[in-house]
Amino acid sequence: MAPASVLPDPSTVVVVGAGLAGLAVALRVADHRPVVVLAKRQLDEGATAWAQGGIVGVLGDDDSVDSHVRDTQDAGAGLVDEHTARYIAERSAQAVEWLVAQGVPFSADPKGPLGLHLTREGGHAVRRIAHAADATGKAIHDALLAKARAHPNITLRERWMAVDLITTRHLDRHADEAAARCHGVYALDMDRQRVETLRAAAVVLATGGVGKVYRYTSNPDTATGDGIAMAWRAGCRVGNMEFIQFHPTCLYHPQERSFLITEALRGEGGQLKLPDGTRFMRAHDERLELAPRDIVARAIDFEMKKHGLDHVWLDATHLGEAFLKEHFPTIHARCLQLGIDIARQPIPVVPAAHYTCGGVVTDLDGRADLPGLYAVGETTYTGLHGANRLASNSLLECVVLGTSCAQRILHTPVPAAVAVPGWDESQVEDADEQVVIAHNWDELRLMMWNYVGIVRTTRRLERALHRIKLLKSEIDEYYAHFRVTRDLLELRNLVTCAELIVRSALMRHESRGLHYSRDFPHTLPVSFPTVLTRRARSRQPGPKR
After folding, report:
1. Lower Cβ count inside 10 Å, N or C end of the chain?
2. What pLDDT shows up at residue 5?
């Protein structure tokens, strides 16, 4: 057994994930406690930097908290927790102000509130989206990452991937479940190919969503559901995993399969069309292109299947070249590189898995079921998004609940230090081949796309669950015998999340929001969140670790 490599300060907080959620927590905590932030790839490769649209701020004279809450509830199709939505909406202006104070270069408008230009996106009644042209996420992430790099109390570790949470069961297999807590995290240092043991006063999961479980996704390669899977294995509840948001407009191009065409382009007047130039959204919703994402995605999916299309068109040519270059420079430049002049040609688009509306069940302070464990952002289920996320609420949730999570951590006494066991790989060896991982990865993602996509049936879900269980068995056996790698860990987490998605979908006997079933096409008059609970925190298959 390898010796435990314990962090020297027992008050250290380990944040798993270096996106907006993780950095929001880290920057708030670091003025008082040491923080270690783990990024499993490069620090700029997370989902935050890919976000184009913006962040909600209830700022204008024509806006109100009540209006934002109503829009959030309408998009969430009856499953939004009103207390959560109101808590976050009430703090939206402070969230935007904090980001401005951190140096985020939002697009300006001298006549706008706080001097900001506000745009509108699908599902919003008014303009309330603060943005930095069409690359808001990158602007926010660059600013916060610069602050984190300069902070003396924050240690940033690139190419470190969390393997599993260290819980009381690692200290004593027979410990009382009621006394269980999180004591740290095992993490793979990929450069040294060594698993380290990081004991911590608190662990914050900010690993993002699970988009890579699908063949087509707007998410970066980091979106493999790591935090959700780790929390589930540790015995935490997960909620609403059936609600996977498919963004309606991902660029359809053989050289670029994950490039998002922001909702704001439709907010400014972009029109969805068939190949003959016919607009089709009027047949699906009176709000046309500004309908919530689930409706637009399902409409595009319907038209593609009806007409046998590989994609539809998003036409913004009538907005003019000058306007498009000023407001959507990233999209204009990237499409031009690929041979598409969006000022003169419509953009080929297709729906793609975009956002995980469910996740680890937490309260508004980010606390998960296991004491010492917190989670923030897309990794979580807080009740904000319900059955469908309202555009640009995601970045807002990261800042608001990242702040409350940090405050809770700082007001919680540091637990007594305990000896934690080091990572044991004495009974495993290096893998002789990687083809098993590659094959299972491809099969899982294709199966999820075909059987657990925008439109579902009970038979498809049952077939998917059967195959997932077989894949999970193969992956668990592989994990038990070979040293861990990033690919193996990501596949292990993806198959766990795939099972959670399918099990949740089978439990919902209706169509609501992002979950549409041909077998249950109607919406029930009353519905509740889908919350999965493990029967027991049993030891997972694998080597003696």
Report:
1. N
2. 59
Candidate from 247-256, 496-505, 517-526 with smallest mean pLDDT: 247-256
**Contact between 264 and 107 (Cβ < 8 Å):** no
Specify which residues 160 forms β-bridges with: 189
Q: Is 293 part of the annotated catalytic residue set? A: yes
Query: Is residue 180 very low, low, confident or very high in pLDDT (cuts 50, 70, 90)?
Result: confident
265-300 in b/e form (b: 16+ CB < 10 A) is: bbbbebbbbeeeeeebbeebeeebbbbbbbbbbbbb
Bridge partners, residue 540, by sequence: none
From the list 498, 530, 506, 535, the residue with the least C-alpha distance to 358 is 530
Q: Would you say the C-alpha torsion 25, 30, 34, 40 has a positive or negative sign?
A: positive
Count of CB atoms situated within 10 Å of the CB of 264: 25
Q: How far is CA 457 from its chain centroid?
A: 25
- DSSP state for residue 58 in the 8-state scheme: -
Separation CA 219–CA 226 (nearest Å): 14
Share of the chain above pLDDT 90, in %: 71
Phi and psi, residue 161, nearest 5°: -120, 130
Q: Quick one: tokens of 358? A: 């469910």
Contact 193, 487 (CB under 8 A): no
Residue 199, φ and ψ in degrees, nearest 5: -80, 140
Q: pLDDT tens, 237-296?
A: 999 999 999 988 999 988 877 788 988 899 899 999 999 999 999 999 999 998 877 889
Answer yes or no: are the C-beta atoms of 219 and 258 closer than 8 Å.
Answer: yes
Quick count: other Cβ atoms within 10 Å of Cβ 343? 18
Sign of CA dihedral 98, 104, 106, 111: positive
Q: Where are the alpha helices (DSSP H) in 128-281?
A: 136-150, 168-171, 226-233, 263-267
For 479, counting Cβ atoms within 10 Å of its Cβ (0-12 exposed, 13-18 middle, 19+ buried), the class is buried
Pinpoint the alpha helices (H) of 109-172: 136-150, 168-171
The residues pairing with 194 across neighbouring beta strands, listed in sequence order, are 189
Out of 293, 460, 492, 512, which one is annotated catalytic? Answer: 293
CB atoms within 10 A of CB 122: 24
CA 31 to chain centre: 27
- The tokens of 201 are what? 């006063």
Q: What is the CA radius of gyration of the chain?
A: 23
H or E element at residue 304:
helix 293-307
Q: Quick one: pLDDT at residue 416? A: 87
Q: Do residues 41 and 230 make contact, with C-beta atoms less than 8 angstroms apart? A: no
Backbone angles phi, psi at 283, to 5 degrees: -75, -10
Count of Cβ atoms closer than 10 Å to residue 206 Cβ: 32
Distance, CA of 507 to CA of 512 (rounded, Å): 13
